[in-house]
């Protein structure tokens, strides 16, 4: 170990690993310290149920990963990352056996929404088609790091994105379009009337057309392993099984970069109540299934999709999210599900399948939502229960115990709601810096927020680099 490192990174999630890679790539001496026994944070894969069934306990589907400017600038394929694309990125089934879809093609997507809304959908996405690279760079940036590459496109997108999704869906006449958009907005875990909830809906739809919604071969762990392997190639080192509790436990370094919650950062680095106004959001209840066969969705489209959203109307989706954020467990949850083994045969023994599902619950909720989740799946896939060989469930307490960043089961590491969607963790010119000149924050509690894209780590590395260069 060198006597003085350039940077120590605490936490080996996608953002911590990205920050470490980007600093090591600039020739700095970097070491990473991770509390868990393996790297990955929210991008990991484990045999949670039965031998041979490889589940993603956290992230599974990666529109923002495959479209991330930070990941695209790294040779991750050479380090084993292979993206597998389902035939359809997303299906949204309805009780009558039909489905709306997000397809790679705008035409197929628009047609699935019905004749009265197809034109409105085409007009909504048209200004952004063929411009993912610029849009992703500009949208997944922060307020402070210079002008957007396409200021007009960025401003237009901002006007669309700032709306509540409930306003965006009013442009559409039928429930198919409204529900599929409300479902995509639901990834942000905020009531559909909230500021900025149209942003995720639009971003996920555009990602579907531009880059797809793929899964990594072998599971989400492959993303983390590729980042870890590239980091080691650049001379960086990773230590696992080390929970950092105090700054002075760490080796001497010129910079300390925290892939942690702001609350943990304040405690570890002695920053007092610097983040007392930072709010954590609703939690999730996650179930990973080992299945005897593929999910028997009534809607044929859902059998060809990597991701399936289960929520029959935009109203029901809104009600489920509102209940969870207001502290009530929804009787009928909105479900985000994924079926990676349809396209990746390394996830389960031949003929068998893994299935990934979660619904939203209040933060810290310690009830059991398994029955409510399975009742809802069964409505759209009769016979599902008969296929269940084993299940692993995790409510907020278990999710928080596995990863300290998911405070009370909030998988976004801070509510992605209201002004906190853009001002996170607090109002400051460079959100990655802290009151301590050598301490930085790089987790999804900073812009651009949750998701496996590494962009918070990328921007934080830039802030560290500027500070270190400034000091010679
Ligand atoms: C159930 C679930 C489903 C999700 N689905 C998706 C999805 O499909 N697609 C998607 O893009 N995103 C998804 N996400 C969100 C995504 O996983 C996160 O937004 C992303 O992982 C955040 O990355 P990060 O590096 O900021 O933090 P994390 O990935 O949470 O990593 C933080 C790391 O820091 C470590 N750490 C924390 N404190 C300490 C300490 N004191 N000392 C040492 N180490 C510490 C933790 O152990 C962890 O490894 C999901 C998350 C969950 C939980």
UniProtKB/TrEMBL annotation:
Transmembrane segments: none
Matches recorded under Pfam families: NAD_binding_8
InterPro entries from the UniProt entry: FAD/NAD-bd_sf
Superkingdom field: Bacteria
PANTHER family named in the record: DEHYDROGENASE-RELATED, PHYTOENE DEHYDROGENASE
Name of the protein: Putative dehydrogenase
Species the sequence originates in: Streptomyces sparsogenes DSM 40356
Organism taxonomic ancestry: Bacteria, Bacillati, Actinomycetota, Actinomycetes, Kitasatosporales
């Amino acid at each position: 170990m060198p006597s003085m490192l350039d940077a120590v990174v605490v936490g080996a999630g996608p953002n911590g690993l990205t920050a470490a890679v980007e600093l090591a790539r600039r020739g700095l001496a970097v070491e990473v310290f991770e509390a868990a026994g393996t790297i990955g944070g929210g991008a990991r894969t484990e045999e949670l149920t039965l031998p041979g069934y490889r589940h993603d306990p956290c992230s599974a589907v990666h529109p923002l990963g495959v479209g991330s400017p930070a990941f695209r600038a790294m040779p991750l394929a050479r380090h084993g990352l292979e993206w597998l694309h389902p035939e359809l990125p997303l299906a949204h089934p309805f009780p009558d056996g039909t489905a709306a879809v997000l397809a790679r093609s705008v035409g197929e997507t628009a047609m699935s929404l019905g004749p009265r809304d197809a034109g409105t959908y085409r007009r909504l996405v048209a200004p952004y088609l063929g411009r993912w690279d610029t849009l992703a760079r500009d949208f997944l940036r922060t307020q402070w790091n210079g002008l957007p590459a396409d200021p007009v496109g960025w401003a237009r997108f901002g006007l669309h994105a700032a709306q509540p999704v409930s306003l965006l869906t009013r442009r559409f006449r039928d429930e198919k379009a409204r529900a599929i958009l409300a479902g995509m907005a639901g990834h942000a875990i905020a009531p559909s009337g909230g500021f900025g909830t149209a942003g995720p809906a639009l971003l996920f739809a555009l990602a579907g057309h531009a880059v797809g919604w793929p899964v990594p071969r072998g599971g989400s762990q492959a993303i983390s392993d590729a980042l870890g392997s590239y980091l080691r190639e650049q001379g960086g080192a990773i230590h696992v099984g080390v929970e950092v509790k105090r700054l002075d436990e760490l080796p001497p370094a010129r910079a300390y970069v925290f892939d942690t919650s702001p609350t943990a950062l304040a405690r570890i680095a002695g920053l007092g109540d610097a983040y007392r106004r930072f709010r954590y959001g609703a939690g999730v209840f996650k179930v990973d299934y080992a299945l005897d066969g593929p999910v028997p969705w009534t809607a044929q489209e859902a059998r060809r999709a990597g991701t399936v959203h289960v929520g029959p109307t935009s109203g029901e989706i809104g009600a489920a999210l509102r209940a969870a954020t207001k502290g009530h467990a929804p009787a009928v949850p909105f479900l985000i599900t994924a079926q990676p083994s349809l396209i990746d045969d390394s996830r389960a023994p031949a003929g068998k399948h893994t299935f990934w599902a979660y619904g939203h619950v209040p933060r810290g909720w310690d009830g059991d939502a398994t029955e409510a989740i399975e009742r809802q799946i069964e409505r759209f896939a009769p016979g599902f229960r008969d296929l269940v060989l084993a299940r692993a469930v995790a409510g907020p307490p278990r999710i928080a115990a596995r990863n300290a960043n998911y405070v009370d089961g909030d998988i976004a590491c801070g509510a992605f709601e209201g002004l906190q969607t853009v001002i996170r963790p607090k109002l400051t010119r460079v959100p990655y810096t802290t009151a301590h000149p050598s301490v930085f924050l790089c987790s999804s509690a900073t812009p651009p927020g949750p998701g496996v894209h590494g962009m918070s780590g990328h921007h934080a590395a830039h802030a560290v680099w500027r500070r270190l260069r400034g000091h010679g």
